[in-house]
Amino acid sequence: MNIIIFYIVLELYEVQWQKAETIMGMLARMYRWYQKSIFLFLIMHPTFYFAVWFVLQTNYNPYAVALLLFKSADIITKIVLIKKVFIDKELSREFTLSLFTPIGPYMPYVGILLYPFFIYMALS
Length: 124
Description:
mainly alpha; 7 helices; elongated
């Protein structure tokens, strides 16, 4: 149970530094760290490192591996979007509209509900 609480605290940290009213706002906040250093950007995702540790700790439990895969896909998606929006500046009109569409106030917290399930299942 303590491990799930610890994970939730780490996830809350990530939500706080990324949270914005639109996806573009979230990407802009992430890009500030990415601009300074890709390594700094990666360090700002402690739940990824937790997932790596958790996979090893649970002897490659399928639920732990799923957690790691989701966290990896999340970071890769963020990097691809940052590159597309801020570096390459390859934006279609539709894509731009979707980036500026307001997201709900609870959307950034979806990971806090989803990811602990994988930890719970891996420990069961």
